[in-house]
Amino acid sequence: MSERVTYKRLLRQFAAIGPYLREDLCEEGHYRFDCLSVCVSAKPAPDKREFWGWWLVLEQDDHHFRYHYQLGFYDADGVWLDKPVPKKHQAEVERTLNHFYKLLVDRLTVLECHLAPAEQVTNELAVTAA
Questions:
Q1: CB distance 63 to 5 below 8 Å
Q2: pTM of the model
Q3: Tens digits of per-residue pLDDT, 62-71?
Q4: CA-based Rg of the chain, rounded to a whole angstrom?
Q5: Which of 5, 47, 104, 125 has the fewest C-beta atoms lying within 10 Å of its C-beta?
Q6: Distances (CA, A) of 52 to 20, 29, 43
Q7: Could you give the CA distance from residue 39 to residue 18 in angstroms, rounded to a whole number?
């Protein structure tokens, strides 16, 4: 097993995945990602638009990472709300989550790290890299 992966290196690796990392909400051992998958309406100004999407929290213990995520609504104030995603948008939100998960697994594998769902993630909610 290689030495512990540093916080700065992890941030660089996670930022390289794409626009998912919320670096301002991260601290060593705790990383936050999100994705604004489906815009509700393009009419409001860009900084006031609302979205359906997901957020994911990654907790680190040495080379082991556990994740939990939530699907929901990103409101005009920039706050994630735990709201059911409308059926017509579920496939796209799940597609973006699964795409991100595959990229995350690939990065962690290169770093010789392991990823698993947190205890609160049930089998039905576990993400796959398929």
A1: yes
A2: 0.90
A3: 899 999 999 9
A4: 15
A5: 47
A6: 14, 27, 16
A7: 18
